[in-house]
Amino acid sequence: MTYVDGFVVAVPTGKRDAYREHAAKGWAMLNAAGATRNCECWGDDVPHGTLTDFHRAVQATADETVVFSWIEYPDKATRNAVAARIMADPKMEELAATMPFDGRRMIYGGFEVLVETGTPSAADGYVDGFLMVVKDRTTYLAMAERAEAVFRDHGATRVVEAWGDDVPAGKVTGFPQAVQLQDGETVVFSWVEWPSKAVRDTGMAATMADERMQTAPEDMPFDGKRMVYGGFAKLFQS
After folding, report:
1. Whole-prediction pTM value?
2. Beta bridge pairs of residue 7
3. What is the distance between the alpha carbons of residues 227 and 191, in angstroms, rounded to a whole number?
4. N or C: the chain end with fewer CB closer than 10 Å?
5. What is the spatial distance between Cα 172 and Cα 18, in angstroms, rounded to a whole number?
6. Residue 10, CB-side half-sphere exposure with 13 Å CA sphere
């Protein structure tokens, strides 16, 4: 089963190119060690929420942009083996020393993929990223499987829903803090890929208006008030 490492980072807006270069160097190492895909997405339509949002998740300042990214592996065993190889590689220490962002505020975690449909969009595509808190896996899976068909009917190329498996609470920031995780809940990391922002804008509006997406608040398998979401332009993928 596909496994994903998910990340959210606050990057100084003026260091966009430096971040992309850094990501490319990191991917070369990850791919050589066994990872299958990496996608880095630059914040474009990332709203500020009442309770939660991507900005708060990483304590982003006014001169920083939120980056939403993930690394894919064939399974968890491969992910663990890649992590071990990378941590033992002297080049990783060099790369870590040149990070163009504050690593203390990076949030990260490992997720087991529940839903994976479609194919990745092109390098100039667009991504909607989501973080959610869910109590019942079965109920959420049923909803996610219905929703992915609606997204793809309205132009999305790929939909992925991933269930929290190895999601630490960091000292400064973390996925649990980002969604105000409570006892009995699990963090879900998900994304929808679109061919372009224009297709996303039209497709997302149509998706939200689709009767198949209409669910009474009391029947929602997650707390919508704590959902974190935003639109991102692809910066780097391989």
Report:
1. 0.97
2. 69, 108
3. 13
4. N
5. 24
6. 18
Q: Domain 3-237: state its class.
A: alpha beta
**Distance of CA 196 to CAs 3, 171, 231, 238, Å?**
26, 36, 11, 17
The closest alpha carbon to 213, from 140, 144, 160, belongs to 144
In the block, tokens 């992925």 appear at: 160
Using a 10 angstrom Cβ sphere, with 0-12 exposed, 13-18 middle and 19 or more buried, the burial of residue 180 is middle
pLDDT in tens, 73-123: 999 999 999 999 999 988 888 898 999 999 999 999 999 999 999 999 999
Q: What is the DSSP string of 183-230?
A: TT-EEEEEEEEES-HHHHHHHHHHHHHSGGG---GGG-SB-GGG-EEE
Domain-wise residue ranges, the chain: 3-237
Residues 9, 18: Cα–Cα separation, whole Å: 14
